[in-house]
## 1
Amino acid sequence: MKSKITVGMIGLGTVGCGVAKVLYGNAALIAKRVGAPIELVRIADLDITTDRGLAIPDGVLTTNAQSVLEDPAIDIVVELIGGYDPAKRFILKAIAKGQSVVTANKALLAVHGEEIFHAAASGGVDLGFEASVGGGIPIIKALTEGLVANDVTSMFGIMNGTSNYILTRMTEDGNSFETVLQQARDEGYAEADPTFDVEGVDAAHKLAILVNLAFGTTVNIKDIHTEGISRLSTVDFEFAREFGYTIKLLSIAKCVDHEIEARVHPTLVPSTSPMAQVGGVYNAIHIVGDAVGDVVLYGQGAGSLATASAVVSDIVDIARNRLKNISARVPVASYHWDCRAPIRLRPIEEISSMYYLRFMVLDQPGVLSHISSTLGEQNISISSVLQKGRQHGQAVPLVIMTHRSSERAVQAAIQTITGMPFVSEAPMLLRIEGADA
C-alpha cells in the first residue's frame, strides 16, 4: 500500500495559488481524512520569481511542465493553466502515461471534452473536473454520484459570477451596463476583456459539461443557443420590476420529448423565487430529478479558495482510489462509455416560452394595434401591455408580455414589426422562466 500520494501542478495563477495554500495549510487535516499524506511535490509555471505570499518548499517550483508529466513518482497531475493548448496536450500526455488528472478547465472540456473523456475511459485513469463548473459548488459530484439514481428532467441556474454581479448592481442601483461593468473591473470581478462572461460563453461552456453528465450525450458547444447581457437597458429592469420579475442570466437544460433544450440567455424569473435572490458573484444551480424532486446548490462560483476547494476535493477522491489500488470507480462522463448515446439538441426556434417584448416606437396613434395584429397573425396571445411616457412624435418604450408561444412565431413577428416605420430600434426579447412559464 502506498504511504503517500504525490501531486504535480501545472499553473500557479489565482486558482493554483489557492490549491497550494489549501494543500500546504491543511495538510494534516487532509491526511487524517485520506489516511495518508498528500504532498504537492512539483509546481510548474512560466513565472516562478514573483512573490505570491506562499511558503513553497525549496525545489518544488520549476518552469518546465514536462518535469511534472515525466516524473513517474507523481500520482496526480493538476492542470490549471486554462485555455486549449498546451493544456490539452498536457492532459492527454498525463493520461497516456497512466497519471490521473485534475483540471478546472471548463472551456477545454466543453470543446474537447469528448476526446479527453474517451482517453481517460480507455486508459482506466481518473479525471477530476469538479472545479470546472460552479467554483466551490459540488455540482459534478452531485450529478455523477449523489443523484445517480435520478432521471434528470431539467437543470437551470446562474453559472457566471461576473454577469450575475453586473445584473445585481443594475437591478439594485439602476445604473447602465457600461457603468456597472467598469465597477466590476474596478472590484476585480471582471477581466479586462469580459466577453466570455458578459456574452454568456463561459456559462455555455459550463452548461455543455453538465448536459453531457446529466443526459449521457455528446454536446457540441455550437448547438447551445447563447445570448449575453450587454444589450440590456436600465428600462428593461424597470419594466421587469413592475411586472414582478428579476432579470438573471440563466443556463437552462430540459429534456422534452426525448430531446434536449440547452440554452443560455438573460431571463425573467419571478422576483419571489429563490433564483432571483442569488446576488453578487454567487452561483446557484437547480436540478430536478424524477426521484428526488428539486435540489438547489448555492455558493461561490469563483475565487481562489472556493475553486481550490473543488480542485482539492478531486485530488482527495483520486488519492483514496490510489490508496486502494483502484481507479475509474466512477465513470468519467457519469455514464459508462458504451451506454452513452447521441440525443438531439433542439434549436432555439423549436422551443416555447412566455416572452417579454420591448419595442421602442414613435408615440402616435395606431402603433399598438399594428403590433398586436402582427402578433395575432402568428397566434401569439398577449397577457399584458405597459407603455410609459408620452412624447408625441418621439420614441417611447412599449412592453408586451405574452402567454406561452413558440419561439419561431415570436421571431417571425419581431422580424415583421422591426421593419415597421414607427419602430426606432431593434426590439428586446427576453424569455420568462418560472412556475407558470
Note: The mean pLDDT is 95.
## 2
Amino acid sequence: MSMSGEARFGGVDSVISVDEVARQAQAIAREVGIDQLDALVGGKPCLVIEDLHAGYGQMEILHGFNLRVGRGQSLCLIGPNGAGKSTVLHSIFGFTRIFSGTISAERDGRMVDVTRMASNDKLRSAGIAYILQDKSVFPGMTVEENLWMGAYLMEDPADARRAAERVFDKYPRLAARRKHLAKVLSGGERRLLEISRALVMDPQVLLVDEPSIGLEPRFIDAVFEILDDLQRKEGKTIIMVEQNAKKGLEFADIGYVLVSGSLALAGKARELLDDPDVGRLFLGG
C-alpha cells in the first residue's frame, strides 16, 4: 500500500494522512520481546539484528531495532512511509551509518558479526545480496552484459560467464533475450533481470526492496512466483519490504510492522493478515 501523502482504506471517502496512520499504528503497538522473535524462527537464525540504532548522516532512523530470520524463511516488513523499512535493508547491506547495535549472519555454520563489513564483503563472504527497487538495470547494456555486471566480484571472467549461463538455464525467458538491450524489456522482464543479476553470486540471503513497485498487475504474480521458487526450492532466505502489504504478507512466513523506526508488531504473516488493526491500517480493509 503506497502512502505518499494520504492513505485510503474502507470506503473511497475514508482518507487519512500518513502521520495519522503512523499515530494509529503506534497506538496498536505491542512490546515485542526477543523470545517472541526467536519463536517465530523456530530454530537457529541465519541473520540476527540486535538493538540496532542506524540512519543517515546525523539522523537516526532505527531505534533499538531487533530482527531474527531463519534459513529458508521469508520475512516481510510493512508499515507507514518513513517507518524505516528500507533503512533495515540498507543497514544490513551497509548503506547506512550504524550508531550502535550489531548485525550477524551465519557463515560456515557459525554466526559472524557483519555490522561494519563492506557491502562487497557481505555479498562475497556472507552471501547477502541486495535487490534494488525498479530502474536498477543498465538500459544501454544487453541482458547478458547486465548479468555479467552481477558477477563483478568474480576475478575470472570465465566464472562470470558460467554463472550467467546458469541463470539463463533457469530462466529461458531471459535467455531468449540475452542479446537484447535491457531498455526494450517489459517491466516484468526487467524485474526478473534485477533478481537474476543478484543470483549470479549465489547468495543465501536476498534483501528485496519493493518487488512489485512500478509493475502492472499481470507481472506482480509472476515476480512473487519467482521469489517463492527461490525460497521453497533453493532454500534462499528473503527479507522483503513491500508497499503492497497484503501481497507481501500473503507471500511471507513472518511479518514485522515498523512504526517510527521501531518494531511495533511481529507475528506469523497469516496472523497479521487476520489482525483487524493491521487490516484497517495497512491492508485496505
Note: The longest helix spans residues 217-232.
## 3
Amino acid sequence: MKKLLVLLLAVFVALPVMSQVKFGLKVGASTTSISMDDAKTLKSGSTAYLLDKAEGANYGFHAGVFLRANISKLYIQPEVLFATRSNEYTFKNVATLQDSATAKQTFNKLDIPVMIGVKFGPVRINAGPVGSVNIGSPKELIDKPDLKATYASMTFGYQAGLGLDLMKKLTIDLRYEGSLAKYQSKLGDIALDDRPNAFLLSVGFMF
C-alpha cells in the first residue's frame, strides 16, 4: 500500500507540468484465466479431494474514472476502477471418484493502474503498473474449515496494450494484464492465483 501511495503522489505532483489534462469515465469487460501447474490433492479431515482449475475463461467487468495528462506525444493516465473477477475450481472426491463439483469465487476489487504511453495520431500504445485492493472477502471454495483460502489484501501487476481516440472524446482500450508476483495466495499449503492473467476491453468518454 505504501508503494502505491508514493506512486500516486508522484503522479499527481507531476500533473501540473503537463500541457493538457483531461478527465474521463470508462467502463469495460474482462476475460481471465487462472494458473495452476498441476492438479493438487488435499485433505479435509479424512476426505481427500483433487483440486484443479476449471476449464474455460471467466468474465468480469470494471468501471471508474481516469485522468489523462498530455505532453507532446507522451501522456500519463492514472485510473481508479471498481472491478469484479471470478475464479473457478473443480473438486473430486478421490475415494469415491464422484463427478467433479465446481466452486466459484467472485472478487470485488479496487484497481489503480498508472499507464504511461505514446500517441501516434488517434492510436496509442501504453503500459504501466496496477495495484489491486480486495473489497471484502470472497466466498470460501468449499464448506470445510481446513480448506479455507487465504488471499492477499493487496496485489500488484502490470497492464499493456493499445488504445484508440475518436473525435477527441471517445476512447477505446484493449489491454493485457499480468501479475508481478505469481501465486499470491494459498489454500492450505497449495499456491493459488488470485490475480489471473486477463484481457480487458473498455470504452471511455473524456471531458
Note: Residues 2-14 form the longest helix (13 residues).
